[in-house]
Design goal:
The structure is a single chain. By secondary structure, the protein is α/β, with parallel strands linked by helices. Helices cover 45% and strands 10% of the residues. The chain has helices spanning 19-26, 32-37, 58-64, 69-73, 76-90, 103-107, 144-157, 169-178, 186-194, 196-220, 237-243, 245-255, 273-278, 292-299, 318-332, 352-366, and strands at 95-96, 112-115, 119-122, 162-167, 224-229, 262-266, 283-285, 304-306, 338-339. It has a 7-stranded parallel sheet. The chain has a two-stranded antiparallel ribbon with strand order 2-3. Strand 6 (262-266), helix 13 (273-278) and strand 7 (283-285) form a beta-alpha-beta unit. It is globular and about 55 Å long. It starts with 18 loop residues before the first helix and ends with a helix.
Length: 368
Amino acid sequence: MSANDRPTGPQQTIAGTSRTGAGARSAAADSAFLKACRREPVPHTPVWFMRQAGRSLPEYLKVREGIPMLDSCMRPDLVTEITLQPVRRHKVDAAIYFSDIVVPLKAIGIDLDIKPGVGPVVDRPIRTRADLARLRALEPDDVAYVTEAVGQLVGELGATPLIGFAGAPFTLASYLVEGGPSRNHEHTKALMYGDPELWADLLDRLADITSAFLKVQIEAGASAVQLFDSWVGALAPADYRHSVMPASAKVFDAVAEYGVPRIHFGVGTGELLGLMGEAGADVVGVDWRVPLDEAVRRVGPGKALQGNLDPAILFAPRTAVESKTREVLTAAAGLPGHIFNLGHGVLPTTDPDALTHLVDYVHHETMR
């Protein structure tokens, strides 16, 4: 189906959900991935990988050649092709929309760029109350290319669900305040501790922007959404509960009416797993540092879990990969909902054949 066959704006019902999006999701409703998110019986443990569409694939490098990252995120045909590449190659159980967490910030006029080898770099960091005025509301028309690309994708994917995503307020704030990636988040924490009122207002505004970005994806047909809080593991639990959790909860509450599974993931968040579930997620992502049988104790009942093979293990011999994968599956045995994933994103130099074999292995080992 061509882009011209798809509407370019949300079509809402009285309840607030999109007729277009709801129709697109119906084909994927019985997929193993969505069943696992709902903690229902599955024919096999579903598998997908964070950064499955990216630098580990030669076909990705070919289509991205000479195209800056942010430009590639704004071209629906290119987004569609890149998102589909790992589904074709690896036969994963879900696709994740190809984009970047700073796309909505760029869309509202923040002067930033993604520099190769560095990451997002913000020209003028946001550190004062006057700077908040630069964070205007995100409107659907600001990201019409997202609506178009999601429409194309759900037409191509059929029964394979599409996961939409966004950056969580804390992680977006850390980029905006630091001006780019940071090891220690010193400016971020200085603002959080030194001016808690400004910090709260900053995260609240980012929560609104993130919510709007997720709504665009859901209304266009995304079957689930994942909120990436990549850097929140830098915080102690008390600071997370007081200074971050309200904004994350606002995002989850904003999309609750759509009824799609909501996934929450962060790195180094072993001490935060229970709070991340409490914030409103239906599925809690777990990195490789905490075994899933321990993670379920920390998260508590009523949540599915996602994870959690160390991505570096894929560089080991196949027998070692299979052995460590069995450990993950054994730790997940008996969980009412488990989605197999890595404990973080696919590393750029990963052999694509190792990923393909991993999908086959998990499916074979868990076939019911």
